[in-house]
Structure formats: C-alpha cells, structure tokens
Specification:
By secondary structure, the protein is an alpha+beta fold. It is 31% helix and 19% strand.
C-alpha cells in the first residue's frame, strides 16, 4: 500500500478518493487504509465515512469486475511466461534460415533469433567506414539526437533533442570524442536524413527471403559512437537489426514479462539495463533477461513487444527493417492512453 505524508487539517478530496479506490482494488485491508488516513491527519469520522462509501460504491464494484477480467488475462500471460522460461536462456544463432523456417519457428512464435550469412553480399559490409561516409556525404546536413546526457528520459523526450549539423561534423564527433551517449543518429531522425544520405542506401540490399520491396520506407539508419544506450523499451512492430559496423550488446525480455518490467509510460520502463536495481524494482526478479552480442554481418529478429536494451560497444552502424513479407501492423489495438 502506498505511503502518505502527515499534514495539518487534512480533508478527503478527489485525489484521496482515487488513492482509496486504488488501494482497495489492490486488496489492501480497509483497516490499514483507515490507519494511513489517520496518520496523515484526517479525522476518524471522515476517514471511516469515506471508506464506507468507497466499499459500497457501484463504481468500485464495476472496477473490481474489470480487475477480475484483467486478472484472467494475466493468468494466461503468466502461463506463457512460465513456458518461455522452460527454454534455454539464449538467443539462437542460425545460418541462412529459410523463409519457411524463419516464419514458422520465429516470426509466428515471437522468438528472437540471430541470423548469419544473409547480408554478406551487401556493398555496405565492405565499404562502410567513417572515411567512406565523409567522402560520400560529409557536406550534407543531417539530424541527430543531441544533449541526451542532460535528460534521464532522453528517449521519451526524443523530440526535444533534435539537432541539425553537417554529417562531416557528426562523423568527427564520433571519431574523436570517445565513448558517449550524448549524441546518436537514430531511426527517429530518418525523416530528415533519408534524402541527405541517399547514396548510402545504394549499398544496402533488401533481404528478399524475409522482406518486402513494396514498402516506401525500407530501412532505418542507426549510427553512433561507442557508449550509445537505447534504454529498455519494446517496439510496436516486428523488427530486424542488421549490424554493419561494430558490435552491440543487448538484453532481451519476452513480451510476456510485461507484468514485471514497470511499464508505466508508453513502451518504456525506467529500469536501467546498465544496473537493474531490484531493490527499487523488486518484480524484476521474476523477469528473465537474456544477453546477446550482435556482430557485424548478423541480423537480429526482435519480435513485436520484445523488451530490449541496446549498448554500442564500439563505433557502430545498424540498419533496421520493419517491411516484412507478413502482417506487421500491431498498432490498431494499441491503447490510446499510454500512461499505465
């Protein structure tokens, strides 16, 4: 049950009523709620009267019925989580998975997998480095995320961290400044950077075994120094991460671990993948994290809803894709109110 602070001449208002309802729905004992209200300075008669009204309220009874339905959903999800935990805690590496095997064993089951051998023939694999980027597009103006170190929630507030600069200046930063999470060119900057870096996309080939060439946007570029951090979140689509330059370390959790990951806002959690504080976030003890390394030439399949934390271990360039051959639109039933 949530703690409350003591104050003078405290009376029950709507915020208190929300607090009472929430705690009753969390199955807190009325006596304990009553004692907390007394401790906060609310008179005994007023506290008792509010509790009686709340317990008898048809609104609260309706909310409890909805809670019971959600509890059934949680039971189903918990069963799936337990079944997932029967598998080895690893992301398998498979060489040149056939279209059917990828679809049947991973895409439709929501299991991550690292696929090797599928982008070896990309010109990008042999051409892409900082000097090549500078010679091809160094004079172009691009958009990057900047000033991330000043904001603990830089990913949630990403629109506030846009900065335009020459690609050559950004390359110099990446090359000379050492490990940093303060600046990063991500998929969110793609709207401005697609035309500016058009030549680079000639070095990227679709993966016809799994991807459609009919989509207008066929990839997203991620480019940054060692030390870039993408905090724990999940995507609203299935994704491929094709690693071209450098290595990335990832922590993954199944979509079914959502009851344990403190998903309070949209698709993010405040749990820090660099140091998972189980004292602050005790339910994380029941979530299972799987660590994997993504090396150049490898493609990671991230299923929709899969929680992932990404750390750049070196200067890295990644191309991500969402234009799969199969249904990949999972936004229609996503909650409109994303404060959880």
């Amino acid at each position: 049950m949530a703690e409350v602070e003591r104050g003078a001449d405290v009376h029950v208002n709507d915020e208190w009523r929300r607090w009472i309802a929430e705690n009753l729905l969390l199955d807190a004992q009325p006596q304990g709620i009553y004692e907390q209200m007394l401790h906060a300075g609310i008179a005994g008669d007023e506290a008792a009267n509010e509790l009686r009204q709340a317990i008898a309220s048809p609104y609260l009874l309706g909310a409890r019925r909805l809670k019971n339905r959600l509890a059934k959903h949680d039971w189903v999800m918990d069963n799936q989580q337990r079944l997932n935990h029967l598998r080895k805690p690893e992301v398998p590496r498979c060489h040149k998975l056939s279209r059917n095997e990828f679809f049947e064993s991973y895409y439709t089951t929501g299991r991550p997998v690292i696929i090797t051998g599928m982008i070896d023939d990309w010109p990008a694999m042999s051409k892409w480095n900082l000097d090549y980027f500078r010679s091809r597009c160094g004079n172009r103006m691009v958009e990057v995320q900047f000033g991330r170190d000043t904001d603990a929630h830089y990913e949630i507030n990403k629109l506030a961290h846009r900065k335009t600069m020459s690609f050559g200046d950004y390359i110099d930063l990446v090359q000379n400044a050492g490990p940093s999470n303060d600046y990063y060119m991500t998929a969110y900057n793609e709207g401005c950077n697609r035309s500016a870096l058009a030549e680079l996309w000639h070095d990227v080939v679709q993966i016809p075994a799994y991807l459609s060439s009919e989509e207008s946007t066929q990839g997203f570029l991620w480019f940054g120094p060692a030390g870039t951090i993408t905090p724990f979140h999940h995507d609203l689509t299935n994704n491929f991460m094709a690693q071209v330059v450098g290595r990335k370390r990832l922590l993954l959790m199944s979509a079914c671990d959502i009851p344990n990951v403190y998903n309070h806002e949209h698709c993010f959690t405040h749990v820090d993948g660099r140091h998972v504080d189980v004292e602050r976030f005790p339910m994380m003890r029941d979530a299972r994290m799987v660590e994997c390394m993504l090396n150049p030439g490898e493609v990671l399949f991230l299923p929709v809803g899969c929680w992932h934390f990404v750390e750049g271990l070196e200067v890295s360039v990644t191309v991500s894709f969402t234009n799969f051959l199969w249904d990949n639109d999972y936004t229609a039933r996503y909650p409109k109110d994303t404060t959880f």
